[in-house]
Amino acid sequence: MNWSGRVALVCGAIPAGKVATYGQIAALCGGPRRARQVGRALHQGASSAAFRVVDRRGYLSGARAFPVPGLQRELLRADGIAVEADRVDLERYQWCPSEQELTALEQAFAQAGV
After folding, report:
1. Are 109 and 9 in contact (CB under 8 A)?
2. What's the distance, CA 40 to chain centroid?
3. Could you say which of 9, 18, 21, 45 has the lowest number of CB atoms within 10 Å?
4. Do residues 43 and 11 lie in contact, with contact meaning Cβ atoms separated by under 8 Å?
5. How does pLDDT run across 11-50, given as a tens digit for each residue?
């Protein structure tokens, strides 16, 4: 499985009402120093859950990442996430995968030959 496939699997596991950071996604994909590559993969359409990914401080991705201005903000709000000044409160909304979720990701990677 290529990098974009890994990113898609992890992003697909982010539950509704939660967000993850680019660095967090990179670490879960096995490349803890590849946050920028996560951004590239998402920009190229790796996952429909890309709107749930924010920067390490909780700031939204910005207009360049989404074709419609404010789209990420609106999608997050529809998902039940409060967005203030284009920022998400990570203490409240950051996804902390359970052991069960981590095991499921490991199994998905194994099935994909990672």
Report:
1. yes
2. 12
3. 45
4. no
5. 999 999 999 999 999 999 999 999 999 999 998 888 889 9
Tens of pLDDT along 50-109? 999 999 999 998 767 788 889 999 999 999 999 999 999 999 999 999 999 999 999 998
**Joined tokens for residue 34:** 């590849």
Angstrom distances, CA of residue 59 to CA of 73, 81, 87: 10, 13, 4
CA dihedral 81, 57, 52, 31 (to 10 degrees): -150
Instruction: Find all residues with CB under 8 Å of 53, minimum gap 6, and list them.
Output: 11, 14, 19, 20, 21, 22, 25, 38, 42, 61
Quick one: pLDDT band at residue 114, thresholds 50, 70, 90? low
Distance separating alpha carbons of residues 68 and 57, to the nearest angstrom: 23
Structure-token pair, residue 55: 């920067």
